[in-house]
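Example for tutorial group B:
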């Protein structure tokens, strides 16, 4: 199962929409729990009573639970509670994103397949007649590394594992940097309009009511 992150964002909206953001997150978490999708963490950005955005990490893809709920949500305030010149609609965005898997630098032995063979090329008779070359397959990623530079199989094995770890670390670093950039955009990017869900607030209970 791939963890996913649900982002509920007010974008650059005013205090009213930031207060609105916390309410859909509770509703979406309830929908996930109904399908046994466990919430593992919730991150609040900004004031807890009026957050700029909220991130909810769940254990698996919640697309089924959130069917029809990903997109723009609008809170419609009763006209009696606002002056005529006041804004009566506030928009928040709900988006869904796979959570990048962290690749450990310490590679579990079960994740690699190691084979040895005779080295070719320069190095004399000793290199060519012993199984000093090492080939490593990293099963989860499909990355293959072959090292033949040393006469010792043990040294080539160490170098191959170090090279594999460096490749995985570089790949993870690129993924993390890309995720951070996308992560920042997720907190601001949504369409104000074409709402997938409309809500109003029950003044007595303080709960959202679907329209």
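The residue assignment follows.
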């Amino acid at each position: 199962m791939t963890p996913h992150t649900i982002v509920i964002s007010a974008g650059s909206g005013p205090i009213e929409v930031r207060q609105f953001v916390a309410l859909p997150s509770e509703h979406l978490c309830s929908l996930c729990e109904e399908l046994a999708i466990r919430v593992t963490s919730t991150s609040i950005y900004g004031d807890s009573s009026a957050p700029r955005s909220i991130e909810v990490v769940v254990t698996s893809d919640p697309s089924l639970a959130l069917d029809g709920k990903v997109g723009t949500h609008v809170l419609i305030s009763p006209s009696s509670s606002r002056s005529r010149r006041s804004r009566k609609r506030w928009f928040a965005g709900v988006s869904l994103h796979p959570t990048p898997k962290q690749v450990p630098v310490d590679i579990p032995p079960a994740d690699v397949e190691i084979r040895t063979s005779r080295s070719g090329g320069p190095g004399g008779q000793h290199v060519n007649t012993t199984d000093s070359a090492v080939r490593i397959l990293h099963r989860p990623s499909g990355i293959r590394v072959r090292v033949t530079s040393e006469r010792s199989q043990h040294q080539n094995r160490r170098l191959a594992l170090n090279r594999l770890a460096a490749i995985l670390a570089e790949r993870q670093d690129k993924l993390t940097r890309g995720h951070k950039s996308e992560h920042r955009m997720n907190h601001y990017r949504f369409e104000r309009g074409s709402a997938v869900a409309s809500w109003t607030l029950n003044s007595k209970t303080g709960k959202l009511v679907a329209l």
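Strands lie at 4-9, 39-47, 50-58, 71-76, 89-98, 112-117, 133-138, 143-147, 197-201, 208-210. Compare this with the pattern of hydrophobic and polar residues in the output above.
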